[in-house]
What we know:
Blueprint: H1 8-28, H2 34-41, H3 45-73, H4 76-95, H5 99-113, H6 116-127, H7 130-150, H8 153-162, H9 164-188, H10 205-213, H11 216-236, H12 240-248, H13 252-280, H14 284-303, H15 310-324, H16 329-337, H17 343-373, H18 378-385, H19 387-401
Amino acid sequence: MDKQNGEFRWIVFASVLCSYLLMSSQRTAPGLITDQLMADFSVTATTIGLVTSIQFFVYTALQIPMGILADRYGPNFFLIAGAILTGLGTIIYSLGTHEFTLFFARILTGIGDATVWVNLVLILGQWFNAKEFTRLIGVAGMSGSLGFLLATVPFSTFIVFVGWRKTFLLAGILLCLCGVLLYFVLVKKPNKPLFEKRGMQCENTWLVLKRILSNRQAWAIFLSHFGVVGAYLGLIGSWAVPYGMEIYGLSRTDASQLIMISLVGALIGAPFLSWLASRIGMIKRPFVVFHLILLFCWSSILLFHGKPPFMFLVIIMFVIGFAFGSNSLTFALVRISFPENESGIVSGFANTGGFLSAVLLPGIFGKILDQYQSVGDVGAGYFYGFITPVIFSVIGLVGVVYIKDYYQEK
C-alpha cells in the first residue's frame, strides 16, 4: 500500500484523530465534577488536586520511555493499547466507591493517555509527506482541543441529566471501541504487524538519549512546552470550573461554558498558527509572540486580585486558549530540528515538559486553596493560586527565547 499517496491515509487520519479526541477529553472531564467528588468521597481539595495530578504524572513519566519504544517497535500497537487502557481506566473511575479507586483509575488512564501524542505524530509522519505533516499537525492539535471542548457543556449536560457515573461509563466504552477501530485501520486493513522493527537499536538507545539530554535545542523546546501547555491543561482539568462557581457564582453548566470559550480559542489557534508558521517559513517568531500573550493574560488576572470583570475574563479565556494552540509548533520544531529516527524520543521529551507543569499545577493550586479555605478566604486562595501559571509562563518564555529556528520552504 502506497501510504503517502493513497486515499486510505485519510481514513487513518480520521480514525487516529477521533481516538485522540475522546482520549484527550478524559484529561479535563474530571474537572467538571470536582465539588461532587469532594462531597461523595469526603476528601479535601488537596486530595482532588493529587487525583488530577496523578494522571498527568504518569503521562509525563512515560513520555520518554514511550518515545524510545515507538522509535524501536513502531507506533501502532501502543496507540491501540492506549485507547483501550484509557477506556478501562474511565470505566473503573465511573464505578469507584473509594478514593483509592479514583487514584488507580487515573493511573490507568494516564498510562493509556501517555501513548497517544507521540504515536500519533509518528503515524502521521508515516502516512503523510513533510509538507502535509506541518499543516496537519495543527489540525491534530485542534482535535485535542475538541476533546477538551467535549468535556465542557456536552459532558456537563450529560452529568446533569444522568449523573457523572453513567457519563464516564459511556465515555469509557466508546474509548474501548476506538481501540478496536484502530486495530482494523492500522493493522488489519493495511496488513501490517502490530510491532514494526524500526531504526533505533537497543545498544544505542542510551547514547541517543544522552545526546538529546545534552542538546540545547531539546531543552529549549522542553521549557517552551512546559510554559504553554501545563498551566492551561492543569487549570481547566481541575480548578477552572470551581473557580467560576465559587468566585462568580456561576452554575456548573455556565462555568463549563466559560471553559468552552477558551477551548474555542484553542480550536481556532492550533490550525491558524501552524498555517502561519508554514506561510512565513519560520516557527520561533510566532511562538515568542504567543508566549508573551500568555504571560500577559495570566498576569492580568492577578492585577484584578483574582477576580477581573466577567466580560474581561471571557476575553482572557478566549485569548489564552488561542495562544495555547501554539503548542502544536513544538512538534513542527522537533520535526525540522532532529533526525526522523529520533523523532519519537524527542517528541516524548518535549511532551514531558508540557505535562510536567500539568502535574505540578493542580496540586500546588489545591494546596494553596486549602490554606485559605481553612480561614474562610476563598478569593485570596484563587488569587495566590494564579501566581503559579504566571511563573510557568515565565519559564516557557525563557525556553522559547533560546530556541534555534530553522527556515522552511514556504
